[in-house]
Amino acid sequence: MEREDLLAAARAAAEHAYAPYSRFHVGAAAVMETPEGELVATGANVENASYGLTICAERVALASLFQMLPAGATPRVIQVAIACIDAPEDASDEARVPCGACRQWLAELAPEAIYYVDGVARDLALPDLLPLAFQLKRKPRSQRARARVEPGASRSRHSAASSKSV
User: Fold this and answer.
1) Sequence-separated (6 or more) residues with CB below 8 Å from residue 129
2) Among 23, 77, 157, 162, whose CB has the most other CB atoms within 10 angstroms?
3) Could you tell me if 61 and 43 are in contact, meaning their C-beta atoms sit under 8 angstroms apart?
4) Which of 122-126, 133-137, 146-150, 160-164 has the highest mean pLDDT?
5) Cα angle value 145/146/147 (rounded, 5°)
6) How many domains does the chain have?
7) E strands present in the chain
8) Residue 47: which CATH number?
9) Catalytic residue set
């Protein structure tokens, strides 16, 4: 999908935001690739008086993609657009990009996507948004090494010092 078309979809989604506390209406549009072609899901932020219960536009859009697929399938997200329609025209790039929680969602669910942020002139990749992103790569249980402690060995580096009498 063209950059400007996807940003327009994000702006339109932002019109549906519920933002009585921050007054920042944010919209997101995410594109996933399927064998039948591209599908787009949009989302808007929905705030709550208990701020931790607020959900951001980016997470709404990403979660919506899962509803478009068969159960258990993971979307292949290729583009994400984010727009805060209340951002001042002179806002910095840093004031326009997703929050940390959304960046982590993007790292897991859209690592190869191209990101378009309204008001940021260039296209972004995940490392631009989240350098050194946390990634959990677990080995199967049978391949995990177990730490072994020899009988009689100290389990704490402080145990020897704490057992000395003064």
Assistant:
1) 97, 98, 103, 106, 115
2) 77
3) yes
4) 122-126
5) 120
6) 1
7) 26-34, 37-44, 76-84, 114-117
8) 3.40.140.10
9) 58
